[in-house]
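User: Quick one: structure for sequence A, then sequence B.

Assistant: Sequence A:
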Amino acid sequence: MGGNETIDDYILEACTKRFMKVARIIVDVSQELGQPPHDENGLAIEKRIRSLIEAGKLEGAGDLSRWRFSEIRLTSTLEK
């Protein structure tokens, strides 16, 4: 799996100003990295999503550990 900066770049590229399911972002980023989206790969991406939320680059809604039931989007400063 790529480094944190690479993963962060893929996450931010996959997100838009509209809320999107965390599961979709994890699958999209996993495909870009050439890795399966489950197990430790998905958890590593989830960890980076949480870091980007803490850094104010993403906004989250719902319980992020429940990928199919939570959503993220770019903050207004990073909108596409």
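Sequence B:
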Amino acid sequence: MTGIVAIIMAPIIVFLVIVAPIWLLLYYGTRRREANTLSADHQHILNDMTSMLERMEGRIGTLEKILDGEDPRWREKGPALDRL
């Protein structure tokens, strides 16, 4: 009876000690890498937002140049709402 138990237990012990930890490390490592990547839709949205931000920065720069030409001290005055 002891021989049969040893024959059955040996593969289980080998699995639990060697195979299962490696399996878990590879599984959760893959999951973590997948979680850190963007889907194609999210990447497209991010690219659109980046291009919109770059255009907005250009427009703000142009507006600041215009305001600097009209009133060089406009930055010191603060927001227009404060003057109401």
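The chain has a mean pLDDT of 88. The helical segments are 2-35, 40-70, 74-77.

User: Thanks, that's what I needed.
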